[in-house]
Amino acid sequence: MVQEKLLTLLRPAADKCQECAIKHLPGEPHNKESLFYQVKFFQKNCRYPTWKDAISHCEKKVREAWEKELRKAGVWEVKKI
What we know:
The chain has helices at about 35-45, 50-55, 60-70. By secondary structure, it is mainly alpha-helical.
């Protein structure tokens, strides 16, 4: 399936993460709630990101800590729409 791009994203500022347009350290999760991240991820994957996607590039210890806290907050989900 060829996904037609309906939006063109401008690059984030140089001091921001180029995936989610939020300022964070490279080993920290992307912000799943960032509209930039959602659109960019959708354009690549034809689905919206989950928190699992947002933490997937992190070290195991960081992923486990974030998953634990996100589950506590009731916002962890892995469903793919």
